[in-house]
């Protein structure tokens, strides 16, 4: 019997990146193969090629022994392949039923047979134990529920091979357990499964075999039996992973950033920052640890003048800063690495060079009066690209052409370019590859050593612990404790983050 | 006051105006509303062109050009061949061709769709002005065909069932489009392509092919609208003949929330205001310069749009060329 899926020598070159380099993989019925790798390792590219959504430059894809052509998504589906996409492929304004039947609708003459469509969805939902409301509109559903719809959609045809592209990224731990159970059951009933993830414990839990990808190359096969989490991590990153950063002890100076009694509303107009007092000194990194959604984002935006402060004050070197006025806050000496670099960090349609001077394009030396000094902008860009190792053919390319990690380097480079007093860094290494993470970490410490006060907000506790001099734990909109990072205890901080007293 | 919000107030407005005229003279009301219906149909059809395109994610601001060129083709082919059926055929063919042109530019070449539409409009003005010959006539317009029995219904009979064949066919097209869009597999797929094309693509629906087909059919409907104008409603053609109807149609499409029936109602509203404005001028009820009365329909449309605009939601993928590899 031939394998369900057989990929041989698949190669795909994107502009500037070799996304897949001669990758081969086969999947048998009833087996769970995990594709493990960092962001940008080429996992999604590989499965998109299987699904006919990306045209490979070289290589062959066989499904149940038949060679598939590029672009024949309908043929791939007909051959029994279902895919749960990383970015949900659901039409937000349509109902659950409409989304599930799209592409192969039950019909009476020209018309959609809504009644039998609805019944199909209910039957499907029952068969796999994934409960959904067939009449709900997708955009009204929480993400976990949308995920179910996406899975049901993939399972609708009698699938022989199910591909799941980072299905757990948006789920709660309980939903993840549920999903892993579903995956196991499907495999036991003979479905071949390709699971893409970068979460090691999921791999350990469900995978029969693991293919590790790094930088577009297949590093090798292993299995949970032969390896453990540390071993997988090492294969994934290419060296043993210790997120410890070399740094000298901090030499804190006088207070640089002072936050007094800050209260902020969130988007739903509920109080999410409930009176925060913090002081960050020159020459220290204060890390804010906390489970996401405990007011960190709102706090950061309020400090930087992007969100209205309902109460409280923010001072830089003893001077009050204005509310809701990012420009004057910035002029007062606060630099900001925003959480959402696509939305707040960069202008995607501007060149890298222009993005690098967004915070000072209207000042000397980049402008004289109303006239910009383009040659200065260019030479500055060339220098920064070199110094920060931003991977681009030219600084005149658009910012949108960069990969996530390099975009983040542009933001970091820009925000660190001035003699800053205060740096507010929100999730500075989110979605960034390991090499860039290290680089950004070192830059933050270098800024500290030059005397800047750094307020670091991150969802990664390891990052907080390895970078910070002091750690503030935020929970329920309040700072519940501030500890010295030298004698910080992970478990203790973890309990505080979870809202437990002590 | 919840009753007086949204479009209820406009329905009330129309009812009041109709009532006012009806109380004066019933036969005038009937003739005014009948005229309004004839005014409204080409606008409604033009709005269908917009709906067909935008529901699949293509912005079409070239409707005006499509109408103009197909009305031109309808008139001159009828005139040259002395056969209005050939004129109709030419008009639909030209409309389809313009649809395909838009599809090539916006789907295949991934051009900015506003520019693509503008090109069509400029092309239309140029072609029709250049090829225009003065003093030609057509053998006849499409004759009025009164539907027996139905025409005897008071008020509705004369308003709806005493028109020419293209009128009836146009109404049929609008109703079919409504059914097709919301009840058939084609409609579901088209809307999916206009809202979230990668969902359709991953479900095995060809985004490119569907966009081509729909934009071409939309062009054909535009051709029908053009033929209705020059061969049935007016019976002549001049330079700039369509006078912005294609742009008005875009507004009606939005007011009708990209729903064929909604757009038809919006067109009817606009047609009525226009017919009432005409009647006001004839009656000389108010002594103000006629120019002010002629702009009344447009002002009302602007007000109506301004009030309702915040609540409408365009197809999400509108105006974005589909890039498969960014899916």
Automatic annotation (TrEMBL), chain A:
It is found in: Cell membrane. Gene3D superfamilies: P-loop containing nucleotide triphosphate hydrolases (3.40.50.300). Residues 5-240, 257-501 form the ABC transporter domain. It is a peripheral membrane protein. SUPFAM superfamilies: P-loop containing nucleoside triphosphate hydrolases. Pfam families: ABC_tran (PF00005). GO terms for cellular component: plasma membrane. Keywords: ATP-binding, Cell membrane, Membrane, Nucleotide-binding, Repeat, Translocase, Transport. InterPro entries: AAA+_ATPase, ABC_carbohydrate_import_ATPase, ABC_transporter-like_ATP-bd, ABC_transporter-like_CS, P-loop_NTPase. One of its GO terms (molecular function) is ATP binding. PANTHER family: CARBOHYDRATE TRANSPORT ATP-BINDING PROTEIN MG119-RELATED, GUANOSINE IMPORT ATP-BINDING PROTEIN NUPO. This is Unannotated protein. The lineage of its organism: unclassified sequences, metagenomes, ecological metagenomes.
Automatic annotation (TrEMBL), chain B:
It is found in: Cell membrane. Keywords: Cell membrane, Membrane, Transmembrane, Transmembrane helix. It is a multi-pass membrane protein. One of its GO terms (molecular function) is transmembrane transporter activity. GO terms for cellular component: plasma membrane. InterPro entries: ABC_transp_permease (IPR001851). The chain crosses the membrane at residues 33-51, 58-78, 84-107, 114-135, 155-181, 212-231, 251-272, 292-310. This is Unannotated protein. It comes from freshwater metagenome. The lineage of its organism: unclassified sequences, metagenomes, ecological metagenomes.
């Amino acid at each position: 019997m031939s394998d369900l899926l057989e990929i041989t020598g698949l190669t795909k070159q994107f502009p500037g990146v070799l996304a897949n380099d001669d990758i081969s993989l086969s999947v048998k019925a009833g087996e769970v193969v995990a594709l493990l790798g960092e962001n940008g390792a080429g996992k999604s590219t590989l499965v998109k090629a299987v699904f006919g959504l990306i045209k490979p430059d070289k290589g062959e894809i066989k499904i149940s022994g038949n060679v598939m052509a590029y672009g024949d998504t309908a043929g791939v589906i007909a051959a029994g392949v279902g895919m749960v996409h990383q970015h949900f492929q659901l039409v937000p304004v349509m109902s659950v039923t409409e989304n599930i039947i799209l592409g192969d609708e039950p019909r009476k003459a020209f018309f959609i047979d809504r009644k039998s469509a609805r019944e199909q969805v209910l039957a499907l939902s029952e068969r796999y134990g994934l409960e959904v409301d067939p009449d709900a509109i997708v955009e009204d559903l929480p993400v976990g529920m949308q995920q179910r719809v996406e899975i049901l959609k993939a399972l609708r045809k009698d699938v022989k091979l199910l591909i799941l592209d980072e299905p757990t990224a948006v789920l709660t731990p309980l939903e993840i357990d549920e999903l892993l159970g579903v995956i196991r059951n499907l495999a036991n009933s003979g479905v071949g499964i390709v699971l893409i993830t970068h979460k090691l414990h999921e791999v350990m839990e469900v995978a029969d075999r693991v293919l590790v990808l790094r930088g577009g190359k297949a590093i090798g096969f292993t299995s949970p039996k032969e390896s453990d989490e540390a071993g997988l991590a090492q294969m994934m990153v290419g060296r043993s992973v210790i997120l410890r950063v070399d740094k000298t002890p901090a030499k804190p100076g006088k207070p640089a950033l002072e936050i007094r009694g800050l209260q902020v509303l969130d988007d739903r107009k509920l109080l999410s920052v409930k009176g925060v007092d913090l002081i960050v000194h020159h020459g220290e990194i204060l890390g804010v640890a906390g489970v996401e959604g405990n007011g960190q984002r709102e706090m950061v935006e309020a400090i930087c003048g992007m969100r209205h402060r309902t109460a409280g004050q923010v001072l830089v070197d003893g001077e009050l800063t204005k509310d809701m006025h990012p420009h004057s806050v910035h002029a007062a000496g606060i630099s900001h690495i925003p959480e959402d670099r696509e939305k707040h960090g960069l202008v995607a349609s501007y060149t890298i060079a222009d993005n690098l001077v967004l915070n000072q394009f209207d000042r000397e030396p980049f402008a004289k009066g109303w006239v910009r000094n383009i040659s200065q902008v260019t030479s500055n860009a060339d220098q920064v690209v070199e110094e920060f190792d931003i991977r681009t053919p030219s600084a005149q390319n658009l910012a949108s052409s960069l990969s996530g990690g390099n975009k983040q380097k542009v933001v970091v480079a820009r925000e660190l370019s001035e003699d800053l007093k205060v740096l507010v860094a929100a999730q500075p290494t989110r979605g960034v590859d390991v090499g860039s993470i290290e680089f950004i970490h070192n830059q933050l410490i270098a800024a500290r050593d030059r005397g800047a006060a750094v307020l670091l907000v991150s969802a990664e506790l390891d990052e907080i612990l390895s970078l910070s001099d002091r750690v503030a734990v935020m929970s329920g909109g309040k700072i519940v404790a501030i500890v010295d990072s030298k004698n910080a205890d992970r478990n203790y901080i973890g309990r505080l983050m979870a809202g437990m007293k002590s | 006051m919840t009753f007086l919000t949204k479009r209820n107030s406009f329905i009330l407005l129309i009812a009041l105006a109709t009532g006012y005229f009806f109380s004066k003279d019933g036969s005038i009301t009937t003739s005014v509303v009948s005229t309004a219906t004839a005014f409204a149909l080409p606008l409604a059809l033009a709005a269908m062109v917009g709906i067909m395109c935008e529901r699949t994610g293509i912005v079409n601001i070239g409707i005006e050009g499509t109408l103009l060129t197909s009305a031109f083709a309808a008139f001159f082919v009828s005139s040259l061949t002395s056969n209005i059926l050939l004129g109709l055929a030419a008009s639909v063919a030209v409309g389809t061709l313009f649809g395909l042109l838009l599809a090539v530019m916006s789907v295949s070449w991934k051009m900015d769709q506003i520019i693509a539409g503008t090109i069509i409009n400029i092309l239309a003005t140029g072609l029709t002005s250049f090829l225009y010959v003065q003093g030609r006539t057509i053998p006849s317009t499409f004759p009025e065909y009164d539907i027996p029995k139905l025409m005897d219904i008071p008020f509705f009979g004369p308003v709806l069932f005493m028109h020419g064949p293209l009128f009836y066919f146009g109404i049929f097209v609008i109703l079919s489009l409504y059914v097709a869009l919301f009840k058939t597999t084609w409609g579901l797929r088209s809307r999916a392509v206009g809202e979230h094309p990668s969902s359709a693509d991953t479900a095995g629906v060809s985004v490119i092919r569907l966009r081509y087909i729909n934009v071409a059919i939309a062009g054909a409907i535009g051709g029908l609208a053009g033929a209705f104008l020059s061969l049935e409603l007016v019976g002549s053609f001049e330079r700039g003949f369509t006078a912005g109807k294609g742009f008005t149609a875009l507004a009606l499409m939005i007011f009708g929330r990209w729903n064929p029936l909604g757009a038809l109602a919006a067109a009817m509203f606009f047609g009525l205001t226009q017919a009432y404005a005409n009647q006001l001028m004839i009656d000389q009820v108010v002594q103000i310069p006629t120019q002010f009365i002629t702009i009344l329909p447009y002002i009302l449309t602007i007000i109506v749009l301004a009030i309702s605009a915040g609540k409408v939601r365009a197809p999400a993928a509108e105006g974005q060329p589909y890039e498969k590899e960014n899916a």
